[in-house]
Write a structure and sequence with these properties.
The complex is a heterodimer of chains A (661) and B (518). Helices cover 72% and strands 3% of the residues of chain A. Chain A is mainly α and 661 residues long. Chain A has a domain of 68 residues. In chain B, a hairpin with a 4-residue loop joins strand 1 and strand 2. Chain B is globular, with a radius of gyration of 22 Å. The chains are: A mainly alpha (661), B mainly alpha (518).
Amino acid sequence: MLDWIWLIPFLPMVGAIINGTVGRRFPKWAVNIIACGSIFAAFVVSVASFIALTHLDPSQRFHEVTLFSWIATGSTSIDLAYLMDPLSSVMTLIVTGVGFLIHVYSVGYMHHDSSYNRFFTYMNLFCFAMLTLVLGNNFLVLFVGWEGVGLCSYLLIGFWFEDQEKAKAGMKAFVVNRIGDFGFLLAMFFIFMHFGTLNFREVMAAAPTAITAATATLICLLLFLGACGKSAQLPLYVWLPDAMAGPTPVSALIHAATMVTAGVYMIARCNILYSMAPGAMATVATVGAITALFAGTIAIAQNDIKKVLAYSTVSQLGYMFIAMGVGAYAVGIFHLMTHAFFKACLFLGSGSVIHGMHDEQDMRKMGNLRKYMPHTYRTFLIATIAIAGIPPLAAFFSKDEILWMAWSGGFKAQWALGFLAAGITAFYMFRLVFMTFFGEERHDEHVKGKVHESPWTMYVPLYVLMGLSIVGGWVGIPEALGGANHFHHWLAPVLDTGSMEGARHAAALVGDIGPSAAYASGGGGGGEGHSIIEYILMFASVGWALIGIAFAAFCYLKRTDIPAKAAASAKGVYELLYNKYYVDEIYDAVFVKGLVALSNHFWKFWDVVVIDGAANGLAKVVRATGGGLARLQTGQAQGYALAVAIGTVALLAFFAAHATL
Amino acid sequence: MDHILSVITFIPLVGALIILLMDKRAAGLIKGFALTVSLINFAVSLPLWWRFDSANPGMQFVENAPWIQSLGVNYFIGIDGISLFLVLLTTFLTVICLMSSWTIEKRIKEYMFFFLMLETGMIGALVSLDLFLFYIFWEAMLIPMYFLIGVWGGKERIYAAVKFFIFTMVGSLLMLVAILALYFMNIGAGNEATFSIIELYKLNLAPNVQFWLFAAFCLAFAIKVPMWPVHTWLPDAHTQAPTAGSVILAGVLLKMGTYGFLRFAMPLFPNAVEQFTPFMMTLAIIGIIYGALVAMVQDDIKKLVAYSSVSHLGYVMLGIFALNQQGVVGGLYQSLNHGISTGALFLLVGVIYERRHTRMIKDFGGLAKQMPFYAAIFMIMTMSSIGLPGLNGFVGEFLIMLGTFLSSKIAAVFAAFGVILAAAYMLWMYRRVFFGPLDNEENQNLKDLNALEWGYLLPMVILVFWMGIYPGSFLGKMETTVESWLGQVSDKRIACAQLTEKPTLASLIADGLDNYSR
């Protein structure tokens, strides 16, 4: 079975080729079957590969399939090759599983769109690129997927390209991601220089002896720059909120569940390198923690339902990076998975709301939708409870474990930021629920009486994702709560070497307590020495989340006048949050306008005035003094010959006359 | 002896001469004939690909016959892994260009005549292994191109043509002097009079002599590439040239510059290369960044593509001067890629220009709705141009940057920065032309691609994917040649560095003149 893993990316690619070339002549049902069928087939192959892996001894759970030699010259030899191991297998299951549900949902959501086949072509193409990303056995194949998902993201954000703003958002995503790619490319060159290969297994095996900690730090920081672009972390997160211009299924698939987690996956894949670079790890954890809080605060003041979810995604990705930075790689991937479930559910739910509200996205114009959209309401509420971190739903296990890992690893500051953000998350998510599904109806005139529930193709995937948001966390219940932490054990062959090493280095660097025994319970799979602190923190974060929810209920259900008053009394703070700390404006003024001005200067001054001025001036001088060169412009062959001869003789004479040069 | 290279070189010339005899009123016949000639030539050249022995690093399909014996001039031609694909690119692009020239209405007979002459000139320059012969073809290319711009160009065509001519001519003259100097020095060293490049490779010159000769060759080729700051002829020439002229200019003529470095300047004067490398890399990097930035603020699509060429060719030069396998192969590969993707972009600009008689970005917007296939192909070429993995541009860029990194990290950092800018200027243009509302009335009835346009664009699209997904078909043929080329350059550099006596350039030439007159 494992020899067929290349089918996982290739099936969606075939779907994209068929729908992209002849799809416009097909009826819609045929386009659906090709698009959803190909991704479902990929899911089946992923499941089969997963089962095949389970039959292997844990140390033997990897399989590489080389398709052909891609770029080979001199000492460089890079294959187009795929690798299936526990980490890839988790990722393929998420991408194909959640991807399939979102494809089915899109059948309903995009039903009326005139570019139906184009949409599914891009979606399938995206799945191909994303699966190549998670299955590539070397950095360059990963990069193929990395850029491929970027392209699809660009095409899908600007899917409704007739709206210039949407097209702008797509372009912004691509260009900002390129800044990250700059780091990724340089990291690859460093890796090639030191290892002579880009193959993951070879690099990781050789890393401890081949490079110094300083080199590892440099490589890891450059890779992290790439991750910041793709996974929307500070300071490169600015594209993701704008990316909400795309159709909502796109936001769910690309900008929540899969593509934006590519940076997290990539760091997990390179865990051995990171573990050699404590400075880089501390940077990752810190950036993640700051981003988690920063984005969470912005989400409080947004009124566009998708914008809230977008900032929430940035914030949740921050948690995943905290996990990476403290060396709890498996926990980070765990949160990646649970986040894929509940955030996909939330985005698709918001899509259902937007659909039912006739393209209204402003929450101030919603309210009381639970009456009209019971399925959407129910699933959305459960997913919101999940993201808020209420047990026993998914994010409770994953997010709490991240915070515990940060605390026990000695990253107290990062823990504090993450903890703070957790309560804020609960607040803004319930603010969203209350503004949308509860309270009075603030609907616009033209939608009144027309609000409707979505068709079954849309709410069935919602229920499935809701189910996953509930049970998804149960595969990774930590030993401290009497669970078996299957998820962690499954990933252990890929991630454990790095976890243990990394934890020790990183904790030593931040100068706090050494790795506590508790580390082993989550990080190493030991199972001994749960400190009382772990339980205290668990209660604290649940309590903190409940406070957030209660406060949201108080503000948005009971005393609905409070938010406006609060905004008025703390106008400065509110404006700052509402305008997203003015980051876009600052970037635009400094980078965009600055570069355009510089470019115009190069063109209009250097090219036109200096260089051309010199050349034309020279020509004028020549024309004025001798008649010879003027002849050049007549197009007569004799003219050229004469010029050639004169020039040659003159220069030869010059050289001969000067004895030394 | 195999005469395939001579056949490929002179079929277009014969075709051009036959066109001279044709009635100029028979426009369709002339166009059909010219296209047939180019197709035949392409078909004849294609077997070079599989007949080329990739294990042999030396010259293949060699023909060598005495021509002007008293001067040691030979009709000496051949190809290796460096020139093989440039020859194929030339025969291929000529077919594409003549297809796209089907819509030419003015002076068809002369146009076709010059175009076929140009093909002979280009192929001749690429296969010549005799410096004298090379120089003749090199100059012979210049004249048809001058007329193509000057007669069939846009409003400012005369200015552009003269600028093109003067820039190129200045470089060429210095090169001619250097060629003659080299020739006499070779005689001065006691060798037989020869212009054979293979023989001249063996002439070991002291580094200070190499410096000046390299400088002369370098200027000629740098203007052709074009490298910053001698690039300003290019935007004018490109903007004013007819579509096919731009395609051939970008696709082949610019490559004559990079080819010249690889074939002549660098292996002849390796110690000078060593001295010049930091300087050349700096110019290449300035070209990459500067070209990209200036491209970003252009309001004419064609001029934008022209400036993007300055940036792209900066990458090619950077790779070549990295002087390692990855860099040189990457540079060579990128010069082919640039011929395909930039060539295709010029064709695409031509398509819209024919319909609207404007190339100003502000006149467009929302075209993706009206011309979806045109927009799709334009998108593919845009992505190829900005180096999306899976398409051709990435393979070249990656190898170039990797090679550059291995020889100079700081240069690679700048080169990688250029990748960001490339995305910015291409996508910004694409957005303004193809996205947004279709609000200009004149654009609301535009027709999508017709059969002829599909005919010449589709082969380009296929190549973009092929060269991106399976570059092995191409890289495999370059591999051995580049390896031995690098060995030859470094061996010779070591040999020459040991030259203790340092004769001056002038004394060497004087010796040569003496020997020659005896």
